[in-house]
Write a structure and sequence with these properties.
Keywords: Ribonucleoprotein, Ribosomal protein. The chain has 213 residues and is of the alpha+beta class. It is built from five helices and five strands. Helices cover 34% and strands 21% of the residues.
């Protein structure tokens, strides 16, 4: 038994000596480190906030293209039927613009309450008229008063024949003093009357027409 333990101790000491020698050699030999190649364009701070650094698109002013205005076109004139009237123009005229405006608004609101379709409402050009008088024992005429006539149009489409008498009765009973009321059928001349006539443009058109001839 003693001989066996002696052999075991000798083998253990030899193994420990060999292990210590190998460890010393490992410490003595330098380790070879391979260089790590990284790409130049790779961002190491991708996960970090940039707080808008380097943005420039908000500095460029956006060019907004202007939309071309479409020319005003005439709406279709609806023809009447057995139970409805054709397109009608309720014309309100007077010398006092406030009365004319309020009365036309009243008619418009009444149409909305009675469920009468108002296709359009607009103002016509203000017309001026001069009142001239002659003094006694004189042939010279002097301008006494300049009157301005204001007009408003409320255009009705598909007015029901059953409700038309009630509608006319109400607006006539509530007609303002000094305001004239008329109802006419809408036509092409009424449509062109709302636009201002350019005398200079008409003169140029006539000159161009004579030259082309």
């Amino acid at each position: 038994m003693n001989a066996f333990f002696r052999k075991l101790q000798v083998s253990v000491t030899q193994q420990a000596f060999v292990f210590n020698g190998a460890l010393a050699l490992c410490r003595a030999t330098p380790t070879i480190q391979h260089p790590v190649w990284t790409s130049v364009n790779e961002r190491q701070y991708r996960s970090m906030p940039t707080n808008g650094i380097g943005r420039w698109r908000h500095l460029v002013v956006k060019v907004v293209q202007k939309k071309k205005r479409d020319k005003h076109q005439m709406k279709e004139i609806k023809s009447g039927s057995k139970t409805t009237y054709p397109t009608l123009n309720v014309k309100v005229t007077g010398y006092d613009m406030t009365l004319v405006e309020h009365y036309s608004n009243y008619i418009h609101n009444l149409c909305n309450r009675l469920h009468i379709k108002v296709s359009d409402s607009y103002a016509l050009q203000t017309k001026t008229s001069e009142v001239m008088l002659t003094k006694e024992e004189s042939s010279r005429m002097n301008i006494e008063v300049i009157l301005k006539t204001h007009s408003r149009i409320i255009q009705l489409s598909s007015l029901d024949a059953s409700i038309c008498p009630v509608f006319m009765d109400v607006i006539l009973k509530n007609q303002a003093e000094g305001v004239q009321l008329s109802v006419e059928k809408h036509n092409v001349d009424e449509y062109h009357a709302r636009f201002k006539i350019r005398s200079e443009l008409e003169g140029l058109k006539s000159k161009i027409g004579t030259r082309n001839r």
